[in-house]
Amino acid sequence: MASQGLPLRVATLLTGLLECLGFAGVLFGWASLVFVFKTEHYFEELCEPNAGLTGNATLTGNVTGQTDCKAQDEKFSLIFTLASFMNNFMTFPTGYIFDRFKTTVARLIAIFLYTTATLTIAFTSAESALLLFLAMPMLTVGGILFLITNLQVGNLFGKHRSTIITLYNGAFDSSSAVFLVIKLLYEQGISLRASFLFFSVFSVWHVGRTFLLLPRGHIPYPLPPNDRYGLCSGKDSREEEQKTVESKELEGQSEFVSPKEEFPDPGQQKELHSFWSYAFSRRFAWHLMWLSMIQLWHYLFIGTLNSLLTTLAKGDRALVSIYTNAFAITQFFGVLCAPWNGLLMDQLKQRYQKKGSKTGFSASAVALCSTVPSLALTSLLCLGFALCASVPVLPLQYVTFILQVISRSFLYGGNAAF
Asked: Any transmembrane segments, and where (predicted)?
């Protein structure tokens, strides 16, 4: 464990949790924001009243529902599709930026993208609604960079690493409730512009945290002795390189768990493999396919939720608002669901390590065995969510919302700790 005092590590953990909770994954509260955009008449020019509607019917539609407007729904779905695509497509480039240019540069890019996006949304209107096609992807990429740079904080807590990582991923899921807060404030008279300008002000907080509580480089795992982090530590590049070397040596020493010797013989040590050998392995390919299929279903559900609820509620805007609020509220509990998966993985890993100490299993085999129950449980939760979401019964959607947030928290948290 680092020689830094516990208060500094706890401050880093808690501020990172707040950052993920308040900013990183707000895109997935899209249904709440769409409700506000529709009220503000975004893309309403695409709507064409049904030919049979009279003036009285149109008026009724404004009170209890909306005229048939598939083109408007398709526009909002397209924005979400583009933003969610960038959330996944840009993960690899942003990961490279984080690896190559390290924490400070990656976070400054994230802050620039995020602040630009919030300011753009703040100054959009129904006439300039097309700017959402630019703002939402920028907001998403900035948010995923916040998450990526914060996940390394788990390295500060040793055997609790998986729990911290899943906690952060749960906070990422829960941040979708932020758009619910914006929706509720809007209904109380707080304008959309005021809410997003308030969001933009927090860039100062992001910058302060970047320079005071996070390293210029990376937080290694395993953590070398007497590790120091943050710009205030005054490390130069040579010290950073030395810390990386020490971490790799520690990792090599713990590659095998043996009861007879603290360090394995050179012939026992596992041969190092290149990045591409892992990237093109069958295990990674199957895991990627599994993740992609489940993630696609989640994206389809979130992106079409507003139109789905409108259809099931027969156009009753008040009922749609109630169910939208219920969905957003359940999202907040992602931060409470995700750590259970991390605790499960940590406990199983410690149990398998004890067994491995008697048989000489490699650390990688121990880590893999600890993920199997987690992956199986996640698959069952996602199956239940998919089945409930496929049934067109409005009250059943409450169960769908609960299963969605639990399965999504387990999916992303477990995948990050995999």
From this structure: 12-37, 76-98, 105-123, 129-153, 165-186, 284-302, 322-344, 365-387
